[in-house]
Amino acid sequence: MKKKILFIFGTRPEAIKMAPLVKAFQQENEWCEPLVCLTAQHRQMLDQVIDFFGLPVHADLNMMKPNQTLFHITADALLGLEKVLDDMQPDLVIVQGDTTTAFTGALAAFYKKIPVAHLEAGLRSGNHYSPFPEEINRKLIGQIADWHFAPTPLAVENLQHKDIHGQVLLTGNTVIDALLMGLDKVKDDKELAARFSFIDASKKMILVTGHRRESFGQAFEDICRSLLQLVEENEDVQMVYPVHLNPNVREPVFRLLGNHPRIHLIEPVDYPAMIWLMHASYLILTDSGGVQEEAPTLGKPVLVMREVTERTEGIAAGTAKLVGTNPDVILSEARKLLHDHEAYAAMANAVNPYGDGTTSQTIVQFVKAQLA
Fold first, then answer.
1. Same domain, 206 and 276
2. Residue 244 annotated in active site
């Protein structure tokens, strides 16, 4: 009988990193049956990734609600997953990363005594509240999981120094597998080029993403003011910022950045468009974990607008710099990359520590050896 492998995810970043693994397991249909359960902790952005990669969906909790809290997400996911696990009876549950969906997926599987594999295991910032609630989610999953698929040697070390259950395997990160798959599809896409025809090819394009809840309030306003000053003092620079739907992001961004002709505030973009924008950019300012991992493969320096990051491998490798939310630091480091060609080249040419695009196959072969 084929082994049932259930992938549980609910946000766009999870879907991106799960997609190449689901596709890889689909190629192993002589011994396994990959199944996909969505919590839809996010909805629209999640669906875009599902469509882009052509993923099957076998269960959908569709639990996104206006103004949902962590309490709602946790309770709704656990209750919904109880029925999914009863109906599907999987032999293995795979969760990814550090979302509330990942935590509840692991916990629900534990309650049913189903083995759990944790994709992108072992990341740590060292701060309980940053990123919030992700830092604690990943620690809790680490206590539950039977197999820990760690993306880097540092992640392996983080896990080995903790009292965890199960086996740790160094795999790389599936985000690189997904990026390379996506880049082949979009780099020459004429429709995407037309969609972003407002970008002036004669100017350096800075891509910005920012949405972390720990920066809401004064820190986020400080970020916006630094971005405005950066564009105002560099006439050869333009900025593209896909603005997150959260009102705590949109209000300060549109108030402080909405009236400059070289700052393009656009609606959130789908995954293909994000790859296209990263590929077209000169420099990226972000608080996103996924972007910190993806951009180095494209040769794009990354300034991380967070006080701490759990992706310290990129900092150590020189592909990213941690600049926090202090306007003086953001401006200083961005100016250096805009005007110092040696500093730019050092970051752009640094080797990506997160993988080479073979992570999914490594994991499939490991799981096959355990289950088949």
1. yes
2. yes
- In this predicted model, what pLDDT tens digit does every residue of 283-337 receive, in sequence order? 999 988 889 989 999 999 999 998 888 888 899 999 999 999 999 999 999 999 9
Q: Is residue 178 part of a domain?
A: no
- Residue 30 annotated to the active site: no
Catalytic one of 42, 138, 148, 211: 211
Is 188 among the catalytic positions? no
How many domains is the chain built from? 2
User: Alpha helices of the chain — where are they, by DSSP H?
Assistant: 12-26, 44-53, 70-88, 100-111, 134-144, 153-160, 174-186, 190-195, 218-232, 247-257, 271-280, 289-294, 312-317, 327-339, 341-348, 359-371
Average pLDDT (231-260) is 93
The average confidence (pLDDT) of the chain is 93
Task: Give the active site residue among 14, 28, 98, 177.
Answer: 98
Domain assignment of residue 210, yes or no: yes
Residues 215 and 283 in one domain: yes
Catalytic residue status for 138: no
